[in-house]
């Protein structure tokens, strides 16, 4: 699925903001280190993806109670849930001039309970005319997400019968309902009670 940008301003997908703070020195230094080992933009995009997926543990997998949401904090503290890791990857991509944005899925347990909004990244690599979704949340048994500009290799494929879905929107900045939950949570247990279970219709215009 190719997400639909929610703004016609292409520059928005290269901009810095409070969550995707790619002008921060740590983000810049991390990008420069990855770029030094990547001969072209494709190689850099894959290196940035692999770095976020594999070296920053998903806090639910590691049991880390800390909540991060700003890209620079995710890189510094090396922890975060899917949304935080998506912010970090988006920042690293934009730091090297690769347009990137945030997109989302609605997922549930196998019985359709406990719905949650899951965060992804979409990028438009040089020489490619479409947005390609990536899932940097981190692999574990049963999850094998990979970097791909062709066929998607995401962690999960939504199951419509359980109320799961791909949201069509591509956002330059995190939707307010997601960012507010991340910013207000005292710890990860508190965050689970604050995160939205669906994206409001108004967030998808």
Q: Rounded to an integer, what's the Rg over CA atoms?
A: 16 Å
What coarse outline follows from CA principal-axis ratios? Answer: globular
Largest sheet: 4 strands, antiparallel
Number of helices: 7
Distance between the termini: 18 Å
Low-pLDDT segments: none
Overall CATH architecture = Roll
Total of domains: 1
* Structural class estimated from helices and strands: alpha+beta
Strand content: 5-15%
CATH class: Alpha Beta
Enumerate the strands of the largest sheet in spatial order, edge to edge or round the barrel: 4-3-2-5
Helices and strands, in order, run as: EHHHHHEEEEEHH
Output mean pLDDT.
Answer: 96
Count of distinct strands: 6
CATH topology: C8orf32 fold
Helix proportion of residues, in percent? 25-40%
InterPro entries: Papain-like_cys_pep_sf (IPR038765), Transglutaminase-like (IPR002931)
Domain Transglutaminase-like: 29-135
Protein name: Transglutaminase-like superfamily protein
What is the secondary structure topology, with strand pairs?
Blueprint: E1 4-5, H1 25-35, H2 41-55, H3 59-62, H4 71-77, H5 82-95, E2 100-107, E3 116-123, E4 132-134, E5 165-166, E6 169-170, H6 176-184, H7 188-194
Helix pairs in contact: 1-4, 1-5, 2-5, 4-5
Domain Transglutaminase-like: 29-135
Protein name: Transglutaminase-like superfamily protein
Organism: Actinacidiphila glaucinigra
């Amino acid at each position: 699925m190719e997400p639909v940008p929610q703004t016609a301003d292409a520059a928005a997908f290269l901009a810095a903001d409070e969550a995707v703070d790619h002008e921060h020195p740590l983000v810049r230094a991390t990008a420069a280190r990855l770029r030094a080992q990547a001969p072209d933009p494709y190689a850099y995009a894959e290196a940035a993806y692999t770095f976020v997926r594999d070296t920053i543990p998903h806090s639910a997998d590691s049991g880390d109670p800390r909540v991060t949401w700003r890209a620079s904090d995710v890189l510094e503290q090396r922890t975060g849930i899917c949304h935080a890791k998506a912010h970090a990857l988006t920042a690293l991509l934009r730091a090297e001039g690769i347009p990137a944005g945030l997109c989302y899925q609605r997922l549930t347990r196998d019985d359709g309970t406990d719905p949650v909004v899951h965060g992804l990244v979409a990028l438009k690599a040089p020489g490619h005319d479409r947005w390609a979704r990536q899932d940097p949340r981190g692999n574990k048994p049963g999850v094998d997400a990979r970097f791909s500009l062709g066929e998607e290799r995401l962690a999960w494929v939504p199951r419509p019968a359980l109320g799961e879905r791909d949201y069509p929107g591509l956002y330059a900045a995190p939707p307010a309902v997601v960012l507010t939950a991340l910013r207000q949570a005292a710890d990860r247990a508190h965050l689970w009670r604050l995160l939205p279970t669906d994206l409001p219709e108004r967030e998808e215009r």
